[in-house]
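Appendix C reproduces, verbatim, an entry submitted by the partner laboratory led by Prof. M.T., so that reviewers can inspect both the input and the predicted structure.
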Amino acid sequence: MHWLHDAPATPVHGVVIANEVLDSLPVRVFERQGGRTLERGVGLDAQAQLQWVHWPADPTLMAAVERCFDSAPPPAAYVSEINARQSVWLADLPRFLRKGVALLVDYGDPRHERYHASRDAGSLRCYWRHRVHDNPLLYPGLQDITASVDFTAVGEDALAAGFEVLGFASQANFLLACGIEDLLQAQLADAAAHARLALEARILLLPSEMGTRCKVIALGRDYAHPLRGFGPRNEKHRL
């Protein structure tokens, strides 16, 4: 195994695994107020403290919002995010993957769930010393800020970049199809190792943990073979 600190000099034949990359890319926050679509930005209040500020959405953001709601009018009061760099990141992927598969693992949902009317407060989450909250204006530069991924957009952007969507599944279904249960069974003779792995598996598989909150999408480039992690659990139709 060779660790790469930069993109390879020439595209490779192989597998790219991107774990929680897309949800950390920059987003644009939009807000619906009284039938208008506004963009949220960051400014200063009278005490020079960070605060949200708003201005009318530009045509690029308006088009992206319409894409989220499949050209239907978005709810009158609604806040959410548009991933501003996802299409750029996916368009760059062929630069170092000539043939093979990209496996992207991330928090998110298909578009009709990601932008459901009931999710009207957005998905921005911040992590500070292993605690989660929803105010990105706190601790600037010190906390991790993420937003859920629109996997329908991932599929669309991947097709535009010359990839084929080979599979889509929850993390739990993907790991089960890949044989995580066999891995646990192989450790039965070592009680301590089995207990440790069983606890880790619960975090990866349970719906209350990461099992259904995380999804796996497989993007292929000149690759026509079946992938074990999907099979009958392939949920491409949900995208």
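The helical segments are 59-68, 86-92, 111-114, 151-160, 171-177, 180-185, 191-205. Additional entries are available on request from the coordinating office.
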